[in-house]
Specification:
Layout lengths: L1 H24 L3 H8 L13 H35 L6 H9 L23
Helix pairs in contact: 1-3
Length: 122
């Protein structure tokens, strides 16, 4: 099971780095106006509008892979934690059971005798 978690984590990391790179390479909305008048379109690999479509679709594919990996990691880690857990399947269930346990009377220290103003007397 840990092999699958490691593979999905590596795929998620690659998708995240690729998505960051693709977002940084894309032009802003103001750059489209200059490309429509012909500046920079001749030296572009994809033409005036081809790079926007290619880069935006590649970013969408990377985002989809990233979200699928995130969901898979959540499912795999949840199934792995419930297999290990002896009590309830949720962390909140175990925390509620531990909080409702009674505290022994000897564990609570008695308050010190004090004089006026809360200063202990000797």
């Amino acid at each position: 099971m840990t092999i699958w978690i490691n593979l999905v984590q590596v795929l998620q990391l690659v998708a995240a780095i690729a998505m960051i790179g693709l977002v940084l390479v894309q032009h802003g909305k103001g750059a489209d106006m200059g490309a429509s008048f012909g500046s920079g379109a001749s030296g572009s690999l994809f033409g005036a509008t081809g790079s926007a479509n290619f880069l935006s679709r590649s970013t969408a594919v990377c985002a989809t892979v990233f979200f699928i990996c995130t969901l898979l990691l959540a499912l795999l880690s949840n199934s792995q934690s419930t297999a290990r857990a002896t009590g309830g399947g949720s962390v909140l269930d175990r925390a509620a059971a531990a909080a409702s346990a009674p505290v022994a009377a000897s564990a609570v220290p008695a308050p010190a005798a004090s004089a006026v103003g809360g200063i202990p007397t000797k």
